[in-house]
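Changelog note: in this version the structure field was regenerated for every chain. One regenerated record is shown below for reference.
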Amino acid sequence: MARFGWWAHGACHRAALRADPLALPTPAKPPVHQVETPAGLELCLLPRGEGILIVSTVAAQHRALFVVALTLLLAVSSYITKAWAAGAVAIGKCGAYGQAYDYASEADARTAALKQCKGTCAAITMKRACAAFAVDMTNPCGPHGYAVKPKISTSLNAATKKCYEFGGKECVIRAWACDAKG
């Protein structure tokens, strides 16, 4: 027969268990104030020597399978991010633009960006980076600037700076795109 521990008010009465595993400990003196403990709360349902953290073999196998599946998922997502890491921004007259990101090749990204751009456009490509295109709001057909940098903040700043360098008065970002890690 498995031995069960007895719990009363949070303390286990191990001495009473050694003598008789099913007997309740008897106090030496009658208590001054007696509070009745509901039946069933004193019985610890776990056999002695076991704890709540003991896990069955089936549960351990399920956890191991989950860890393996999660590892494979992360490995595949890393591969996809590396494989689809090309983008482009097409720039046209009067603020026209097109953008494409997360393509398998730079040529595919360039083609997709040029399809979105209205009129005669030129495309700049990026691979695991960010591109930005800025135009002058006072004259959208006038000065503009663009940049490709590793981080979005530096590409936005560089594109705006180029627009001002080419004579822009109120340069704003017209389009931007980041590809994969950018």
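Spot check on this record: The first strand starts at residue 4 and ends at 8. Residues 86-178 form one domain.
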